[in-house]
C-alpha cells in the first residue's frame, strides 16, 4: 500500500513517515504543493494524506486536482477545526479529516479504515491465543471455560479482538462502544478495561489485553506484538 | 453640508436666536400695526376737523372773493405743504384751492356726510370731503393730506424695527452660545472624567453627587457599565493568568522529567515510561486547548446549533450506561429518571450532562446514589444531577461555573477535569438559551441545567 504525505511541517512529515512505514506502508513525503502534483501525476498511490496549508498549491487545490481524475481516498490534516474548514474539505471530496494535534493511533486507525477495500468482512468467530469470541452466539470462551460478559464488556472485547494487534485510543473506544464522540477526561474506558481484564485475563496465566501507555489499549497474544 | 450644526452649543444658540426672532418679530409687527392705525385715525380726525372749520368759515363768509383774497383765513389752519384743500362747484371746478404739490382736482363720488378715501395716484393722499351749500349752490369741500411724509416715517420705523430685530437675533445667538457653553460645562467635565478611565483605571467611578441632576442619571448608568466592564475585564485577565498557569504546570513537568531522564543513560523501559508520561501530559494540554476553543466559540453569539428533538431519558440512560463501571468502582449507584424532550444539539447536551455526572461522581461519598432527573417548569425543563457528598459553601455556589474555578486545593483530585468541565456546561446551557446552576440540597449538591422547552429555531 503506497501512501503520499503532503506536509510542509518537517517534524510532522518525519514522524508520519516513520510511523506509517513501521506499520507496513510504503510512504513518500513531499513538502510542496507543486511537487506533490508532479508525484500524483506520475506515480500510483492508494491513499493521500494532505495538509491544508502547504506552499505553492494548497490542500484544497490538490484535493480538487485529485478528485478531477481519481477516487483515491484522501485524508486531510488541519490545525484549524472551524466547522467551515471541515465542511469545505468534505464537500471537495475528502474522505476523512484529522485536526491537529491528533494522536498517531487515531491517524493509523483512520488510515486502516480508508485502505480497507470494499465493505468490511463480517467475521463471526474470532480466535486469539486460547480466547474465542463468537459474535452470533454472543459467547466468549477461554481455555474451554465460558466467560459471562455484560453487553458493554462484550462490545468492548469485540472491538479489541476485531482490531487484534492494533492500539486503540481511549477516545476511539469510547466512541465505538458507547457512542461518546467527545474527548472525555474521565477514566471510564480504563475502568471498563479493568473490569474486562478481571474476567478474561486475571483468572488465566497469560494476559491478552495490554496497556500501551499514553496511547490506549491493544489485544494480542503477548506484549511483543503490541506494537501498532 | 448639514443644516443642523453638530455642536450642541451651536444648536442651542440657534434655537435661542430663532425664538428671539419670533418673539421680537411678533412684538414688532404688532406695535407697527398699532402705530399705523393710530396715525391713520389721527389724520382722519384732523381732516374732519378741518372740514368742519372750513364749513364754518364758508357759512361766515359772504363771497368766494373774500375767501380768495384772504387766504390767511384758512391758510393758518393748513400747517404745511402736505395739506390740500379744494372747494369744488357742482361741475367739479375748483373755486378755491390750496394745492402746494399741484395735484389734479380729484373726481369724487357724491354722498351724504363726510366721506374718506385714500388716493393712490399720482402720489398717495388721504382725502375727506363733504358737500355743503354755499350761497345756495351745492359745493364740495375737500380736505386732504399728502401721505409722503407719513409713508416715509412708517418706512423708517419699519427699517429700524427690522434692524433691531436682526441685531437682537445676533445678540441672542451669541448670548445663547455662551449660555449653552456654560450650561454644557458639566458634560465636558464628565467627558473628561470618563476619558481618564482606561483599562488600568477601570476601578474609577464617576462621582454620584454630580452637580446636575440630569447628568447624575447618566453617571449612574455609566458606573453600572463600568462595573460590568471591570468584572468582565478582571475575569478575562484572571482567565489568561489561569490559562498560563494551567499550561505551565504540564510544560514544567515535561521539561523537568526530560532533563532528569537525560542526565544519564537509562533502560529502554525507563524511556518508554518517560514517553508514556509525556503523552499523558500532551493529551492534557491538547484537551485543555480543545476545551478553551470550545468555550471561546460558544461565546460567539453566531454559533450555529444543530437543533433537533432530544429525548432526555434516552440521553440519561446512555450516559448512565457509560459511567456505570466508574460508578460501581466507587461503590456508587446511578439512578436515571429523566423525562421529557427538549430541542437542542444532542452532542452538546450529552457533553454537558456527561460533565455534570462526572463531577457528581467525583465528589460523591461512597455507597450513595447519584440521581439524574428532570423537573418541569413553565416553559423550561430542569435537568439535574444530584449526589450525596460534601456541600459547597454558599459563597462559592455562583462561582463554580467559572473557568478554572476551584473551591480549594482539596477539591483537586487526580482525575480533575482541569477546571473547565463546569464552564463548558454553562456555555452549552447558554448556547441553548438556558442556564446552569448549583445548589446544596439535603446531604449533597445538585447541579442543574435549565433548558427552554419551546426553542425558537432561529
Can you characterise this structure?
The complex is a heterodimer of chains A (about 230) and B (about 450). By secondary structure, chain A is an alpha/beta fold. Chain A has two domains: about 1-115, Response regulator (Rossmann fold, 3-Layer(aba) Sandwich); about 125-225, Orthogonal Bundle (Arc Repressor Mutant, subunit A), CATH 1.10.10. Helix content of chain A is about 40%, strand content about 20%. In chain A, strands 2-1-3-4-5 form a five-stranded parallel beta sheet, with helices on both faces. In chain A, strands 6-7-8-9 form a four-stranded antiparallel beta sheet, covered by helices on one side. In chain A, helix 2 (about 35-40) packs parallel to helix 3 (about 60-65). Chain A starts with a strand and ends in a 9-residue tail after the last strand. Chain B has about 450 residues and is of the alpha+beta class. Chain B has three domains: about 10-165, Beta-Lactamase (2-Layer Sandwich); about 215-300, Helix Hairpins (Orthogonal Bundle), CATH 1.10.287; about 310-450, Heat Shock Protein 90, CATH 3.30.565. Helix content of chain B is about 50%, strand content about 20%. Chain B has helices spanning about 10-60, 65-70, 70-75, 150-185, 185-195, 215-260, 270-300, 310-330, 345-365, 420-430; strands at about 85-90, 95-100, 115-120, 125-135, 135-145, 310, 335, 340-345, 370-375, 380-385, 435-440, 445-450. In chain B, the strands form three sheets. A five-stranded antiparallel beta sheet of chain B has the order 2-1-5-4-3. Chain B has a five-stranded mixed beta sheet with strand order 7-9-10-12-11. In chain B, strands 6-8 form a two-stranded antiparallel ribbon. Chain B is rod-shaped and about 160 Å long. Residues about 410-415 of chain B have low confidence and may be disordered. Chains A and B meet through helix 8 of A and helix 7, helix 8 and helix 9 of B.
Amino acid at each position: 500500500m503506497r501512501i503520499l504525505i503532503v506536509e510542509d511541517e518537517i517534524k510532522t512529515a518525519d514522524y508520519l513517515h516513520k510511523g506509517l512505514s513501521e506499520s507496513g506502508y510504503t510512504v513518500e513525503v513531499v513538502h510542496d504543493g507543486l511537487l506533490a502534483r508532479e508525484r500524483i501525476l506520475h506515480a500510483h498511490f492508494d491513499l493521500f494524506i494532505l495538509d491544508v496549508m502547504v506552499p505553492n498549491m494548497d490542500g484544497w487545490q490538490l484535493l480538487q486536482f485529485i478528485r478531477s481524475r481519481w477516487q483515491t481516498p484522501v485524508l486531510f490534516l488541519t490545525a484549524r477545526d472551524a466547522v467551515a474548514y471541515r465542511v469545505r474539505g468534505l464537500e471537495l471530496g475528502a474522505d476523512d479529516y484529522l485536526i491537529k494535534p491528533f494522536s498517531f493511533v487515531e491517524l493509523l486507525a483512520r488510515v486502516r479504515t480508508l485502505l480497507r477495500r470494499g465493505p468490511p468482512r463480517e467475521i463471526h468467530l474470532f480466535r486469539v491465543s486460547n480466547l474465542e469470541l463468537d459474535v452470533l452466539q454472543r459467547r466468549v470462551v477461554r481455555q474451554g471455560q465460558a466467560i459471562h460478559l455484560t453487553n458493554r464488556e462484550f462490545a468492548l472485547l469485540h472491538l479489541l479482538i476485531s482490531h487484534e494487534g492494533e492500539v486503540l485510543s481511549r477516545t476511539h473506544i469510547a466512541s465505538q462502544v458507547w457512542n461518546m464522540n467527545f474527548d472525555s477526561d474521565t477514566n471510564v474506558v480504563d475502568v471498563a478495561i479493568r473490569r474486562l481484564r478481571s474476567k478474561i485475563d486475571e483468572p488465566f496465566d497469560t494476559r491478552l489485553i495490554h496497556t500501551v501507555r499514553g496511547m490506549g489499549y491493544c489485544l494480542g497474544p503477548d506484549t511483543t506484538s503490541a506494537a501498532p | 453640508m448639514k443644516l443642523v450644526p453638530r455642536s450642541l452649543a451651536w444648536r442651542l444658540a440657534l434655537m435661542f436666536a430663532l425664538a428671539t426672532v419670533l418673539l421680537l418679530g411678533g412684538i414688532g409687527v404688532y406695535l407697527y400695526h398699532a402705530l399705523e392705525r393710530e396715525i391713520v385715525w389721527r389724520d382722519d380726525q384732523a381732516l374732519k376737523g378741518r372740514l368742519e372749520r372750513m364749513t364754518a368759515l364758508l357759512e361766515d363768509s359772504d363771497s368766494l372773493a373774500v375767501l380768495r383774497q384772504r387766504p390767511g383765513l384758512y391758510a393758518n389752519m393748513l400747517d404745511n405743504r402736505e395739506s390740500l384743500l379744494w372747494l369744488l362747484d357742482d361741475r367739479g371746478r375748483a373755486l378755491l384751492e390750496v394745492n402746494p404739490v399741484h395735484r389734479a382736482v380729484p373726481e369724487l363720488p357724491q354722498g351724504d356726510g363726510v366721506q374718506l378715501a385714500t388716493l393712490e395716484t399720482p402720489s398717495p393722499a388721504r382725502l375727506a370731503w363733504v358737500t355743503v351749500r354755499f350761497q345756495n349752490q351745492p359745493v364740495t369741500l375737500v380736505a386732504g393730506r399728502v401721505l409722503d411724509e407719513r409713508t416715509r416715517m412708517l418706512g423708517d420705523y419699519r427699517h429700524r424695527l427690522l434692524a433691531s430685530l436682526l441685531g437682537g437675533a445676533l445678540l441672542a445667538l451669541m448670548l445663547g452660545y455662551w449660555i449653552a457653553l456654560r450650561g454644557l460645562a458639566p458634560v465636558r467635565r464628565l467627558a473628561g472624567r470618563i476619558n481618564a478611565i482606561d483599562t488600568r483605571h477601570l476601578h474609577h467611578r464617576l462621582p454620584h453627587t454630580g452637580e446636575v441632576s440630569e447628568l447624575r442619571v447618566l453617571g449612574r448608568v455609566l458606573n453600572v457599565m463600568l462595573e460590568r466592564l471591570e468584572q468582565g475585564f478582571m475575569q478575562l485577565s484572571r482567565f489568561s493568568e489561569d490559562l498560563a498557569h494551567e499550561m505551565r504546570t504540564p510544560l514544567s513537568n515535561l521539561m523537568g522529567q526530560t532533563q532528569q531522564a537525560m542526565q544519564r543513560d537509562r533502560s529502554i523501559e525507563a524511556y518508554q515510561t518517560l514517553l508514556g508520561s509525556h503523552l499523558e501530559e500532551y493529551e492534557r494540554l491538547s484537551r485543555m486547548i480543545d476545551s478553551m476553543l470550545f468555550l471561546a466559540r460558544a461565546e460567539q453569539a453566531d454559533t450555529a446549533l444543530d437543533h433537533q428533538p432530544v429525548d432526555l431519558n434516552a440521553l440519561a440512560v446512555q450516559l448512565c450506561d457509560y459511567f456505570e463501571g466508574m460508578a460501581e468502582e466507587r461503590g456508587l449507584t446511578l439512578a436515571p429518571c429523566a423525562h421529557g424532550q427538549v430541542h437542542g444539539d444532542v452532542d452538546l447536551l450529552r457533553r454537558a450532562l456527561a460533565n455534570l455526572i462526572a463531577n457528581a461522581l467525583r465528589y460523591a461519598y461512597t455507597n450513595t446514589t447519584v440521581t439524574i432527573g428532570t423537573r418541569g417548569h413553565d416553559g423550561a425543563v430542569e435537568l439535574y444531577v444530584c449526589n450525596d457528598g460534601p456541600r459547597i459553601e454558599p459563597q462559592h455556589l455562583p462561582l463554580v461555573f467559572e473557568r478554572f474555578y476551584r473551591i480549594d486545593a482539596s477539591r483537586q483530585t487526580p482525575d480533575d477535569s482541569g477546571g473547565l468541565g463546569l464552564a463548558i456546561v454553562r456555555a452549552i446551557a447558554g448556547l441553548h438559551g438556558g442556564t446552569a446552576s448549583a445548589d446544596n440540597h439535603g446531604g449533597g449538591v445538585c447541579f442543574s441545567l435549565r433548558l427552554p422547552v419551546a426553542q425558537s429555531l432561529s
